Amino acid sequence: MKPFYRPDYRIVRLWTKFWIRSGGLNPFGRFAMRMAALFTAPHKSRVRLAYLADSGYIAPSVIVDHDELTLGRHVFIDDGCILFKRQGTGKMVLADEVKVFRQVFMETGTGGSLFIDEKASIHPRCQINAFHSSIHIGKHVMLAPYCCLYSYNHGVKPGMLIVDQPLESKGPIVIGDGAWLGVGVIVTSGVTIGENAVVGAGSLVTRDIPPDSIAAGNPATVIKKRQDIPA
Question: Which InterPro entries does this one have (predicted)?
């Protein structure tokens, strides 16, 4: 397979800067984003485009159906992502330099809100649903692919179909600054994961994880402290 074609670097730079400054969520803005990315390889190669304009880079294929969305400076949102507000009120805020990679689904609804702080990165196919309580993802947090955060659960009382039961929540989800969640981690409502904590791949987090801890398992439990690891 031939490498991705790039014409003269100076021409590409001028072309990209011209179009990226007109980017946005309206039809022309989406067209401008498509033009800006024309000579840049896909996926992570396009992160740099977000730094060429305060409005960042939002891939043309991104679906946004959210009237309480706030985007900071230099935000990157990759192909196939969905940002959705289902019903009622529910703010969604992506702060400066947040990176959201391919096919991430983020949703808010009644009583819920989502705040992703500066320089956090959400990797492919994560799902983040904030209903009835908030979800706060701190600065420099990394969510590996396929992580799922739900600030609610379905009622399971007998004598009624689960689909007909009201949603329930034990409280907000808070992911502290600098934490790292491995591939496929699931976090349930009412959980706080402390600053700089690490959660192993495939873990189910149902209770709080202290700062600077390494946790894993189903349910996730602390297996060591980061300061116990030799430098």
Answer: Hexapep, Hexapep_transf_CS, Hexapeptide_acetyltransf, Trimer_LpxA-like_sf
